[in-house]
Amino acid sequence: MTLAIAKSCGPGRPKDLEKRAAILEAAKRLFPHSGFEGTSMDAIAAEAGVSKLTVYSHFTDKETLFVAAIRERCQEQMPATLFSIDRKAPVRRQLEAIGRAFFALITRPESIALHRLITAGTASSQKLAQLFWDSGPRLVHDDFEKFLRQEIEDGQLDIDDASRATSQFFALIKGELHARMLCGCSQPMTPEDVDAHVRATVEFFLRAYAPCAERAAMIKPVA
């Protein structure tokens, strides 16, 4: 994905691609750590091992770099291939894969730090929040909604409002743990805990949106 962005937005020589990648890596480290206002283009250049002029040659300003860093982080954790329909695999398995990737993304320490930064309530954080939403969560939401619509067309899901179902799915995946992490009062989860959480969430989701026959089979009467 870095290569594709570089071809469309900047110089195409291998050396330039390496520098662009280094700048993005530096931005992904520094923005969550120091905040948007506390991260200068000078600091990013120093962290990336390039000149400030090189940073500006790839990214016109700090906002452009911030957006690119958020977009790349989301694409690393949740690539487009994750939302490609696999007709040989049960929809449950794909929902679980998406759920695990999303949970891993939102619970990264830098994701928690960035979330606190953009919800600080300052004048600058309001604009930052919109940039963050448009370059990250909104794109993930759109990709998942397209995935759901395809599964609906294929008869794998029975959903009237795919957009609302998308919001519900990600809200369920976040769960109480994400809120506790934002407050700084959560205990670490084991991989087994995460897996159990994602599986239970997908089960809940499918009980609401699986085709009627499958839904009836899931909810068996008590003998």
| Count of separate structural domains | 2
- Order of helical and strand elements: HHHHHHHHHHHH
How far apart lie the N and C ends?
Answer: 53 Å
The unreliable regions are 1-11
> What is the radius of gyration computed over CA atoms, rounded to a whole number of angstroms?
20 Å
Counting helices, strands and paired strands, the structural category is: mainly alpha
Average pLDDT for all residues: 87
Per the CATH scheme, the topology name of the largest domain is Tetracycline Repressor, domain 2
What is the CATH superfamily of the largest domain?
Tetracycline Repressor, domain 2
Helix content: over 70%
Largest sheet descriptor: none
Instruction: Please report the total strand number as a whole number.
Output: 0
What's the shape? elongated
CATH class category of the largest domain: Mainly Alpha
Percent strand: under 5%
Tally the helices: what do you get?
Answer: 12
CATH architecture of the largest domain: Orthogonal Bundle
Descriptive overview:
The chain has 12 helices and no strands. With 223 residues, it is mainly alpha-helical. It has 2 domains: 2-72, Orthogonal Bundle (Arc Repressor Mutant, subunit A), CATH 1.10.10.60; 89-218, Tetracycline Repressor, domain 2. Helix 6 (91-106) packs parallel to helix 10 and helix 10 runs antiparallel to helix 11 (191-209). It is elongated and about 60 Å long. The model is unreliable at 1-11 (pLDDT under 50).
